[in-house]
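General statements about sequence and structure are easier to judge against a single worked case. For one protein, we set the task of working out the C-alpha cells from the amino acid sequence alone. The sequence in question and its C-alpha cells are set out directly beneath this paragraph.
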Amino acid sequence: MRRGAQPRWARWVAVVYVVGFAEGAASHACFVAVGGVHAYRHWPMVSQLLFHALLVLDALAAVWTVRVRPAGPVLGAAVMVADLTANWWGNRVGLARHPLDYLLQPIGLLPFTLFGLFVLATAAPLHRSFRRAGRPGSRTSPPGEQFEDVTPR
C-alpha cells in the first residue's frame, strides 16, 4: 500500500488525522509527564484509564494512518467516540453552568469536538480508500500491482 495511490482528498484527510492524533498523543504525554499516574485524578476512574490509554491509541491511529492501514481510520473513529464521550461527560456540570466558558476557547472542547466530528464523518470513506489501494488491479493500486502473478510454481 502506498500513499501515492490515494486520491488527493484521502491524502488531505489523512494529513488532518495524523496532525490531530499526533497532537492528542502529545497532549496526553504532557499531562502524564507533568502529573504522572495521577494526571487525571479529578476525572472518574474510567476516564482516567481511557486518557492514559489514549497516549498509545492516539499515536497508533496516527501511525496506522501514515502507513495507509485500513485499521487507522477505524481506530481513529473508535478513539474519538470514547474520547468525546468522556470529555463531554466529565465537563457536563461546567457546561451546564457556563457553556460559553467551555465552548468558546481556542484550545478546548469546541475544536476537539469539531475534529471528532470530522473523523467520524470521514472514517468510512477513508477506510474504503485505504482498502482499495491495497487490492491488486484496483484503479488506485500502485503501478506494478495491477496484475496478479499467475506463474505456476
